[in-house]
Amino acid sequence: MAALREEKDKLSNKDYVCMAMDEACAALCAPIRRVPDVILLEIARHSMDDHPSPARDEAPINLIHVSPTWRNVVVNSPGLWTTLYLKVKTVDTAYLIKQTQIVETWFRRAAPLPINLFLYVDCRIVRKNNASYNFGQFLKAIAQWTPRLRRLGIGGQHWTNLMANFVDIEWDLNDLRELDILGQQAKDEDVLQDDMHTLASLQERLILFRNAKRLVSVVASQEVTFFLESFAFIPWSQVLHVSMVEDLPFGSRLNGLFMKCRNLRTAFFSWPNPNIVDIGHHSTKLEKLELHY
Question: Which residues contact 48 (CB under 8 A, 6 or more apart)?
Answer without folding.
Answer: 59, 60, 80
